[in-house]
Amino acid sequence: MKQVITLNVNGAPYAVAVYPSQTLNEVLREELNLTGVKLGCGSGDCGACTVLVDGLAVSSCLSLAVDMEGKAITTVEGLAPSGEVLHPIQESFIEKGAIQCGFCTAGMEMSAFHLLKYNPSPTEAEIKEAISGNLCRCTGYVKIIEAIADAGHKMANTGGETS
Amino acid sequence: MSLSHFDHYAPATLEEVFSLLQSKGPGARVMAGGTDLLLKIRHGALKPKYIIGLKNIRGLKTISFDASAGLTIGATALLAEVARHPDIVKHYPTIAQAARGTANPQIRNMGTVIGNLCNASPAADNAPTLLAMDAQIRIRGPEGERVLPLDQFFKGPGVTALVPLEIVTAVHVPAPPPNTGTAYLSLSARGKMDCTAVGVATMVTMTGKTCAGVRLFVGACGPVPLRAPKAEDILRGQELTEEVVEKAGTQASAESRPISDMRASGDYRTEMVAVLTRRVLREAHHRALAC
Protein backbone atom coordinates (compact mmCIF):
# COMPACT_ATOMS: atom_id res chain seq x y z
CA MET A 1 0.00 0.00 0.00
CA LYS A 2 1.21 3.47 -0.83
CA GLN A 3 1.96 5.87 1.97
CA VAL A 4 2.31 9.62 1.85
CA ILE A 5 5.69 10.94 2.94
CA THR A 6 7.29 14.36 2.85
CA LEU A 7 10.65 14.57 1.16
CA ASN A 8 12.87 17.59 1.59
CA VAL A 9 14.68 17.86 -1.74
CA ASN A 10 17.00 20.76 -2.59
CA GLY A 11 15.44 22.79 0.19
CA ALA A 12 11.80 22.32 -0.86
CA PRO A 13 9.24 19.97 0.73
CA TYR A 14 7.41 17.48 -1.51
CA ALA A 15 4.46 15.42 -0.31
CA VAL A 16 4.54 12.24 -2.33
CA ALA A 17 2.73 8.90 -2.21
CA VAL A 18 5.20 6.03 -2.42
CA TYR A 19 5.31 2.27 -2.07
CA PRO A 20 7.58 1.14 0.79
CA SER A 21 9.59 -0.79 -1.80
CA GLN A 22 10.30 2.27 -3.96
CA THR A 23 13.87 3.48 -3.92
CA LEU A 24 14.80 7.10 -3.47
CA ASN A 25 16.12 6.99 -7.04
CA GLU A 26 12.75 5.91 -8.47
CA VAL A 27 10.87 8.57 -6.52
CA LEU A 28 13.27 11.38 -7.43
CA ARG A 29 13.22 10.49 -11.11
CA GLU A 30 9.69 9.27 -11.65
CA GLU A 31 7.59 11.13 -9.12
CA LEU A 32 9.53 14.40 -8.78
CA ASN A 33 10.94 14.45 -12.33
CA LEU A 34 14.45 15.16 -11.05
CA THR A 35 16.04 13.24 -13.88
CA GLY A 36 19.48 14.72 -13.31
CA VAL A 37 19.84 11.81 -10.91
CA LYS A 38 20.75 8.80 -13.03
CA LEU A 39 20.17 5.10 -12.57
CA GLY A 40 23.17 3.07 -13.68
CA CYS A 41 23.85 -0.35 -12.23
CA GLY A 42 21.17 -0.31 -9.54
CA SER A 43 23.62 -2.16 -7.29
CA GLY A 44 25.60 0.59 -5.61
CA ASP A 45 28.68 0.00 -7.78
CA CYS A 46 28.65 2.78 -10.37
CA GLY A 47 27.73 5.96 -8.45
CA ALA A 48 25.61 7.47 -11.23
CA CYS A 49 22.71 7.75 -8.76
CA THR A 50 24.70 9.57 -6.06
CA VAL A 51 22.80 12.17 -4.02
CA LEU A 52 23.54 13.78 -0.68
CA VAL A 53 21.39 12.80 2.30
CA ASP A 54 21.98 14.97 5.35
CA GLY A 55 25.30 15.95 3.80
CA LEU A 56 26.50 12.40 3.05
CA ALA A 57 26.96 11.01 -0.47
CA VAL A 58 24.83 7.88 -0.84
CA SER A 59 23.57 5.64 -3.63
CA SER A 60 19.92 6.57 -4.20
CA CYS A 61 19.36 3.21 -5.92
CA LEU A 62 19.91 1.36 -2.63
CA SER A 63 18.03 3.80 -0.40
CA LEU A 64 14.35 3.43 0.39
CA ALA A 65 12.27 6.57 -0.10
CA VAL A 66 10.31 5.84 3.10
CA ASP A 67 13.58 6.04 5.05
CA MET A 68 14.15 9.60 3.85
CA GLU A 69 11.47 11.47 5.80
CA GLY A 70 12.94 14.34 7.77
CA LYS A 71 16.26 14.20 5.94
CA ALA A 72 17.74 16.86 3.66
CA ILE A 73 18.27 15.49 0.15
CA THR A 74 20.45 17.28 -2.39
CA THR A 75 20.47 16.25 -6.04
CA VAL A 76 22.52 17.67 -8.91
CA GLU A 77 19.59 20.04 -9.59
CA GLY A 78 20.29 21.53 -6.16
CA LEU A 79 23.80 22.58 -7.20
CA ALA A 80 22.34 25.24 -9.50
CA PRO A 81 18.97 26.10 -7.97
CA SER A 82 18.30 29.04 -10.30
CA GLY A 83 18.75 26.79 -13.30
CA GLU A 84 20.90 29.50 -14.86
CA VAL A 85 23.94 30.19 -12.73
CA LEU A 86 26.02 27.04 -12.52
CA HIS A 87 27.84 25.81 -9.44
CA PRO A 88 31.65 26.18 -9.61
CA ILE A 89 31.89 22.38 -9.78
CA GLN A 90 29.69 22.38 -12.87
CA GLU A 91 31.60 25.27 -14.43
CA SER A 92 34.89 23.46 -13.89
CA PHE A 93 33.53 20.24 -15.39
CA ILE A 94 32.65 22.18 -18.54
CA GLU A 95 35.85 24.22 -18.67
CA LYS A 96 38.13 21.23 -18.14
CA GLY A 97 36.31 18.98 -20.60
CA ALA A 98 35.33 16.57 -17.85
CA ILE A 99 32.06 15.64 -19.54
CA GLN A 100 32.00 13.16 -22.40
CA CYS A 101 28.78 11.17 -22.69
CA GLY A 102 27.56 12.83 -19.48
CA PHE A 103 25.97 9.81 -17.84
CA CYS A 104 28.31 9.76 -14.84
CA THR A 105 28.48 13.55 -14.53
CA ALA A 106 25.70 14.15 -12.01
CA GLY A 107 27.02 11.43 -9.71
CA MET A 108 30.61 12.61 -10.12
CA GLU A 109 29.59 16.17 -9.30
CA MET A 110 27.70 15.07 -6.20
CA SER A 111 30.71 13.08 -4.97
CA ALA A 112 32.88 16.13 -5.71
CA PHE A 113 30.40 18.35 -3.85
CA HIS A 114 30.55 15.99 -0.86
CA LEU A 115 34.35 16.07 -0.89
CA LEU A 116 34.76 19.83 -1.35
CA LYS A 117 32.21 20.61 1.38
CA TYR A 118 34.53 19.01 3.93
CA ASN A 119 37.86 19.48 2.19
CA PRO A 120 38.13 22.46 -0.21
CA SER A 121 41.79 21.81 -1.10
CA PRO A 122 42.00 18.05 -1.65
CA THR A 123 45.10 16.27 -2.87
CA GLU A 124 44.89 14.24 -6.05
CA ALA A 125 44.80 11.08 -3.92
CA GLU A 126 41.88 12.46 -1.91
CA ILE A 127 39.99 13.31 -5.10
CA LYS A 128 40.57 9.80 -6.44
CA GLU A 129 39.37 8.31 -3.16
CA ALA A 130 36.28 10.54 -3.18
CA ILE A 131 35.24 9.40 -6.67
CA SER A 132 36.29 5.77 -6.16
CA GLY A 133 32.58 4.88 -6.07
CA ASN A 134 31.83 6.62 -9.38
CA LEU A 135 32.51 4.93 -12.69
CA CYS A 136 33.00 6.88 -15.92
CA ARG A 137 32.21 4.57 -18.82
CA CYS A 138 34.08 6.93 -21.16
CA THR A 139 37.09 6.53 -18.83
CA GLY A 140 37.61 10.31 -18.74
CA TYR A 141 38.96 10.29 -15.22
CA VAL A 142 41.96 12.58 -15.72
CA LYS A 143 39.79 15.53 -16.78
CA ILE A 144 37.33 14.83 -13.98
CA ILE A 145 40.10 14.91 -11.38
CA GLU A 146 41.42 18.17 -12.87
CA ALA A 147 37.93 19.67 -12.81
CA ILE A 148 37.38 18.80 -9.16
CA ALA A 149 40.75 20.30 -8.16
CA ASP A 150 39.90 23.42 -10.18
CA ALA A 151 36.47 23.70 -8.56
CA GLY A 152 38.14 23.46 -5.16
CA HIS A 153 40.32 26.49 -6.02
CA LYS A 154 37.30 28.43 -7.24
CA MET A 155 35.26 27.63 -4.15
CA ALA A 156 38.15 28.53 -1.83
CA ASN A 157 38.52 31.87 -3.62
CA THR A 158 34.84 32.70 -3.44
CA GLY A 159 34.66 31.77 0.23
CA GLY A 160 33.24 28.30 0.02
CA GLU A 161 30.16 26.71 -1.44
CA THR A 162 27.68 28.78 -3.35
CA SER A 163 24.55 26.85 -2.54
CA MET B 1 14.67 -2.22 -11.91
CA SER B 2 11.94 -2.03 -9.26
CA LEU B 3 12.12 -4.01 -6.07
CA SER B 4 9.52 -6.67 -5.28
CA HIS B 5 6.91 -5.25 -2.96
CA PHE B 6 7.24 -5.32 0.79
CA ASP B 7 5.84 -3.45 3.76
CA HIS B 8 8.23 -1.35 5.77
CA TYR B 9 8.37 -0.72 9.49
CA ALA B 10 10.74 1.59 11.34
CA PRO B 11 10.18 0.84 15.04
CA ALA B 12 11.74 2.96 17.76
CA THR B 13 12.44 0.18 20.27
CA LEU B 14 13.89 -3.34 20.24
CA GLU B 15 10.72 -4.64 21.91
CA GLU B 16 8.74 -3.49 18.88
CA VAL B 17 11.27 -5.21 16.60
CA PHE B 18 10.77 -8.51 18.41
CA SER B 19 6.99 -8.26 18.41
CA LEU B 20 7.04 -7.44 14.66
CA LEU B 21 9.38 -10.36 13.97
CA GLN B 22 7.07 -12.60 15.99
CA SER B 23 3.85 -11.48 14.33
CA LYS B 24 5.17 -11.31 10.77
CA GLY B 25 7.01 -14.63 10.81
CA PRO B 26 9.69 -15.77 8.35
CA GLY B 27 8.63 -13.25 5.67
CA ALA B 28 10.17 -10.46 7.75
CA ARG B 29 13.79 -9.27 7.50
CA VAL B 30 15.57 -6.71 9.62
CA MET B 31 17.58 -4.06 7.81
CA ALA B 32 20.40 -1.83 9.02
CA GLY B 33 21.99 0.02 6.08
CA GLY B 34 20.24 -2.08 3.46
CA THR B 35 23.16 -2.19 1.04
CA ASP B 36 23.26 -6.00 1.05
CA LEU B 37 19.59 -6.70 1.72
CA LEU B 38 18.17 -4.39 -0.98
CA LEU B 39 20.75 -5.70 -3.44
CA LYS B 40 19.58 -9.27 -2.80
CA ILE B 41 15.97 -8.17 -3.29
CA ARG B 42 16.95 -6.36 -6.49
CA HIS B 43 18.58 -9.53 -7.81
CA GLY B 44 15.56 -11.62 -6.84
CA ALA B 45 17.54 -13.69 -4.34
CA LEU B 46 15.24 -12.60 -1.51
CA LYS B 47 11.59 -11.59 -1.53
CA PRO B 48 10.74 -10.49 1.99
CA LYS B 49 7.17 -9.44 2.70
CA TYR B 50 8.19 -7.14 5.50
CA ILE B 51 11.29 -5.07 6.16
CA ILE B 52 11.96 -3.89 9.69
CA GLY B 53 14.39 -0.97 9.65
CA LEU B 54 16.63 -0.59 12.68
CA LYS B 55 17.79 2.99 12.06
CA ASN B 56 15.24 4.64 14.35
CA ILE B 57 16.18 2.60 17.39
CA ARG B 58 17.86 4.85 19.88
CA GLY B 59 21.26 3.77 21.16
CA LEU B 60 21.87 1.24 18.38
CA LYS B 61 24.09 3.67 16.46
CA THR B 62 26.49 4.26 19.35
CA ILE B 63 30.22 3.73 19.13
CA SER B 64 31.75 3.75 22.61
CA PHE B 65 35.31 3.34 23.79
CA ASP B 66 36.84 2.95 27.21
CA ALA B 67 40.54 2.23 27.76
CA SER B 68 39.84 -0.75 30.02
CA ALA B 69 36.43 -1.95 28.79
CA GLY B 70 37.31 -1.74 25.12
CA LEU B 71 35.33 -0.78 22.05
CA THR B 72 31.65 -1.31 21.30
CA ILE B 73 30.25 -0.68 17.81
CA GLY B 74 26.45 -0.52 17.63
CA ALA B 75 24.40 -2.28 14.97
CA THR B 76 23.54 0.81 12.95
CA ALA B 77 26.91 2.60 13.20
CA LEU B 78 27.98 3.32 9.62
CA LEU B 79 31.15 1.96 8.05
CA ALA B 80 32.18 5.59 7.41
CA GLU B 81 31.69 6.44 11.09
CA VAL B 82 33.82 3.50 12.19
CA ALA B 83 36.48 4.37 9.60
CA ARG B 84 36.99 7.89 10.94
CA HIS B 85 36.07 7.56 14.64
CA PRO B 86 39.03 9.14 16.51
CA ASP B 87 39.20 6.44 19.24
CA ILE B 88 39.03 3.64 16.67
CA VAL B 89 41.66 5.28 14.46
CA LYS B 90 43.93 5.69 17.51
CA HIS B 91 43.38 2.47 19.46
CA TYR B 92 42.06 0.06 16.81
CA PRO B 93 43.67 1.32 13.58
CA THR B 94 43.20 -1.99 11.78
CA ILE B 95 39.44 -1.97 12.46
CA ALA B 96 39.26 1.56 11.00
CA GLN B 97 41.37 0.43 8.03
CA ALA B 98 39.09 -2.55 7.30
CA ALA B 99 35.98 -0.33 7.47
CA ARG B 100 37.66 2.22 5.18
CA GLY B 101 38.55 -0.56 2.76
CA THR B 102 34.97 -1.81 2.46
CA ALA B 103 33.16 -1.04 -0.81
CA ASN B 104 33.07 2.64 -1.87
CA PRO B 105 32.34 5.99 -0.15
CA GLN B 106 28.61 5.92 -0.92
CA ILE B 107 28.18 2.42 0.48
CA ARG B 108 30.25 3.32 3.56
CA ASN B 109 27.83 6.20 4.19
CA MET B 110 24.93 3.72 4.17
CA GLY B 111 26.21 0.30 5.24
CA THR B 112 27.23 -0.86 8.70
CA VAL B 113 29.99 -3.02 10.17
CA ILE B 114 27.39 -5.23 11.87
CA GLY B 115 25.49 -5.59 8.59
CA ASN B 116 28.72 -6.71 6.93
CA LEU B 117 29.09 -9.37 9.65
CA CYS B 118 25.43 -10.47 9.55
CA ASN B 119 25.54 -10.82 5.77
CA ALA B 120 28.12 -13.52 6.57
CA SER B 121 29.96 -13.39 3.29
CA PRO B 122 33.16 -15.47 3.58
CA ALA B 123 34.85 -12.38 2.08
CA ALA B 124 33.39 -9.86 4.56
CA ASP B 125 36.08 -7.21 4.91
CA ASN B 126 35.37 -6.42 8.54
CA ALA B 127 35.38 -10.02 9.79
CA PRO B 128 39.06 -11.08 9.80
CA THR B 129 40.33 -8.15 11.88
CA LEU B 130 37.49 -8.36 14.41
CA LEU B 131 38.09 -12.12 14.68
CA ALA B 132 41.82 -11.58 15.18
CA MET B 133 41.06 -9.07 17.92
CA ASP B 134 38.86 -11.62 19.73
CA ALA B 135 35.64 -9.65 19.27
CA GLN B 136 32.36 -10.74 20.78
CA ILE B 137 28.99 -10.32 19.21
CA ARG B 138 26.02 -9.11 21.28
CA ILE B 139 22.77 -10.77 20.35
CA ARG B 140 19.32 -9.77 21.59
CA GLY B 141 16.11 -11.70 21.36
CA PRO B 142 12.76 -11.51 23.10
CA GLU B 143 14.23 -13.61 25.96
CA GLY B 144 17.18 -11.30 26.58
CA GLU B 145 20.82 -10.91 25.59
CA ARG B 146 23.48 -13.48 24.81
CA VAL B 147 27.10 -12.84 23.98
CA LEU B 148 28.96 -15.02 21.51
CA PRO B 149 32.63 -15.01 20.53
CA LEU B 150 32.69 -13.80 16.93
CA ASP B 151 34.55 -16.97 15.91
CA GLN B 152 31.39 -18.95 16.76
CA PHE B 153 29.08 -16.61 14.84
CA PHE B 154 29.77 -17.61 11.24
CA LYS B 155 28.25 -20.95 10.22
CA GLY B 156 28.53 -20.87 6.44
CA PRO B 157 28.13 -18.52 3.48
CA GLY B 158 25.22 -16.25 4.45
CA VAL B 159 24.52 -18.31 7.58
CA THR B 160 25.08 -17.14 11.15
CA ALA B 161 24.41 -18.43 14.65
CA LEU B 162 21.34 -16.19 14.93
CA VAL B 163 18.09 -18.05 15.56
CA PRO B 164 14.68 -16.66 14.52
CA LEU B 165 13.66 -13.48 16.38
CA GLU B 166 17.27 -12.66 17.28
CA ILE B 167 19.21 -9.66 16.06
CA VAL B 168 22.77 -8.45 16.60
CA THR B 169 22.87 -5.23 18.61
CA ALA B 170 26.63 -4.63 18.78
CA VAL B 171 30.11 -6.01 18.42
CA HIS B 172 32.49 -5.62 21.33
CA VAL B 173 36.26 -5.63 20.99
CA PRO B 174 38.34 -6.01 24.17
CA ALA B 175 41.15 -3.59 24.86
CA PRO B 176 44.24 -5.13 23.29
CA PRO B 177 46.91 -6.30 25.78
CA PRO B 178 50.08 -4.17 26.03
CA ASN B 179 52.68 -4.62 23.29
CA THR B 180 50.11 -5.78 20.79
CA GLY B 181 50.02 -5.05 17.08
CA THR B 182 47.39 -5.84 14.46
CA ALA B 183 47.34 -5.88 10.67
CA TYR B 184 44.94 -6.74 7.84
CA LEU B 185 45.74 -7.02 4.15
CA SER B 186 43.44 -8.02 1.33
CA LEU B 187 43.64 -8.50 -2.41
CA SER B 188 41.01 -8.22 -5.08
CA ALA B 189 41.06 -8.03 -8.84
CA ARG B 190 40.06 -4.39 -9.12
CA GLY B 191 40.96 -2.67 -5.87
CA LYS B 192 38.42 -2.14 -3.15
CA MET B 193 35.38 -1.91 -5.45
CA ASP B 194 35.58 -5.64 -5.86
CA CYS B 195 34.78 -8.26 -3.31
CA THR B 196 37.93 -9.36 -1.49
CA ALA B 197 39.48 -12.42 -3.14
CA VAL B 198 41.74 -13.18 -0.21
CA GLY B 199 42.39 -11.38 3.08
CA VAL B 200 44.47 -12.10 6.16
CA ALA B 201 44.32 -10.45 9.59
CA THR B 202 46.40 -10.99 12.68
CA MET B 203 46.90 -9.76 16.22
CA VAL B 204 50.35 -10.31 17.71
CA THR B 205 51.26 -9.75 21.37
CA MET B 206 54.94 -9.64 22.29
CA THR B 207 56.72 -10.22 25.59
CA GLY B 208 60.21 -8.92 24.99
CA LYS B 209 61.41 -10.65 21.86
CA THR B 210 58.96 -13.51 22.19
CA CYS B 211 55.55 -13.80 20.58
CA ALA B 212 53.36 -14.37 23.66
CA GLY B 213 50.04 -14.48 21.83
CA VAL B 214 48.79 -14.55 18.27
CA ARG B 215 45.49 -14.90 16.44
CA LEU B 216 45.47 -15.37 12.66
CA PHE B 217 42.40 -15.38 10.42
CA VAL B 218 42.03 -15.83 6.68
CA GLY B 219 39.06 -14.39 4.76
CA ALA B 220 37.50 -15.53 1.49
CA CYS B 221 39.33 -18.88 1.55
CA GLY B 222 36.65 -21.12 3.00
CA PRO B 223 32.91 -21.15 3.74
CA VAL B 224 33.52 -18.82 6.69
CA PRO B 225 36.54 -16.72 7.69
CA LEU B 226 38.99 -19.38 8.86
CA ARG B 227 41.34 -19.46 11.80
CA ALA B 228 44.79 -20.89 11.17
CA PRO B 229 45.54 -22.55 14.54
CA LYS B 230 48.56 -24.56 13.41
CA ALA B 231 50.19 -21.47 11.96
CA GLU B 232 49.53 -19.75 15.29
CA ASP B 233 51.24 -22.69 17.07
CA ILE B 234 54.35 -22.15 14.97
CA LEU B 235 54.50 -18.52 16.12
CA ARG B 236 53.51 -18.74 19.78
CA GLY B 237 56.46 -18.70 22.18
CA GLN B 238 58.91 -17.98 19.38
CA GLU B 239 61.00 -15.05 18.27
CA LEU B 240 59.39 -13.82 15.07
CA THR B 241 62.41 -14.33 12.83
CA GLU B 242 62.05 -14.36 9.06
CA GLU B 243 62.35 -18.13 9.17
CA VAL B 244 59.48 -18.53 11.65
CA VAL B 245 57.29 -16.05 9.75
CA GLU B 246 58.06 -17.87 6.50
CA LYS B 247 57.00 -21.19 8.01
CA ALA B 248 53.81 -19.73 9.47
CA GLY B 249 52.85 -18.39 6.04
CA THR B 250 53.28 -21.80 4.46
CA GLN B 251 51.26 -23.40 7.25
CA ALA B 252 48.40 -20.84 6.99
CA SER B 253 48.28 -21.58 3.30
CA ALA B 254 47.97 -25.31 4.04
CA GLU B 255 45.14 -24.62 6.48
CA SER B 256 43.01 -22.60 4.05
CA ARG B 257 40.58 -24.32 1.70
CA PRO B 258 39.79 -21.84 -1.04
CA ILE B 259 37.55 -22.49 -4.01
CA SER B 260 38.11 -21.16 -7.52
CA ASP B 261 35.55 -18.61 -8.60
CA MET B 262 35.17 -15.43 -10.67
CA ARG B 263 37.30 -13.48 -8.19
CA ALA B 264 40.38 -15.69 -8.14
CA SER B 265 41.53 -19.25 -8.66
CA GLY B 266 41.98 -21.52 -5.68
CA ASP B 267 45.69 -21.88 -6.52
CA TYR B 268 46.19 -18.12 -6.53
CA ARG B 269 44.38 -17.78 -3.23
CA THR B 270 46.47 -20.55 -1.64
CA GLU B 271 49.68 -18.82 -2.75
CA MET B 272 48.47 -15.42 -1.59
CA VAL B 273 47.47 -16.66 1.88
CA ALA B 274 51.15 -17.44 2.49
CA VAL B 275 52.29 -14.07 1.13
CA LEU B 276 49.70 -12.01 3.01
CA THR B 277 50.21 -13.99 6.23
CA ARG B 278 53.92 -13.16 6.18
CA ARG B 279 53.21 -9.49 5.44
CA VAL B 280 50.61 -9.03 8.18
CA LEU B 281 52.81 -10.85 10.68
CA ARG B 282 55.77 -8.55 9.93
CA GLU B 283 53.54 -5.48 10.15
CA ALA B 284 51.76 -6.50 13.36
CA HIS B 285 55.09 -7.55 14.91
CA HIS B 286 56.56 -4.17 14.05
CA ARG B 287 53.57 -2.36 15.53
CA ALA B 288 53.67 -4.48 18.69
CA LEU B 289 57.30 -3.52 19.26
CA ALA B 290 56.57 0.15 18.58
CA CYS B 291 53.87 0.50 21.23
How would you describe what is shown here?
- The complex is a heterodimer of chains A (163) and B (291).
- Chain A has 163 residues and is an alpha+beta fold.
- Chain A folds into 2 domains: 3-78, Ubiquitin-like (UB roll), CATH 3.10.20; 88-157, [2Fe-2S]-binding domain (DNA polymerase, domain 1), CATH 1.10.150.120.
- Chain A has helices spanning 24-31, 88-95, 105-118, 124-130, 141-157; strands at 3-9, 12-18, 50-53, 56-59, 72-74.
- A 5-stranded mixed β-sheet of chain A has the order 2-1-5-3-4, with helices on both faces.
- In chain A, α2 crosses α5.
- The longest helix of chain A has 17 residues, at 141-157.
- The model of chain A has no long low-confidence stretch (mean pLDDT 95).
- By secondary structure, chain B is of the alpha+beta class.
- Chain B folds into 3 domains: 7-52, Uridine Diphospho-n-acetylenolpyruvylglucosamine Reductase, domain 2; 63-173, Uridine Diphospho-n-acetylenolpyruvylglucosamine Reductase, domain 3; 180-290, 2-Layer Sandwich (Enolase-like, domain 1).
- Chain B is built from 11 helices and 14 strands.
- Chain B has a 5-stranded antiparallel β-sheet with strand order 4-5-10-6-7. Chain B has a 4-stranded antiparallel β-sheet with strand order 11-12-13-14.
- The termini of chain B are far apart.
- The model of chain B has no long low-confidence stretch (mean pLDDT 96).
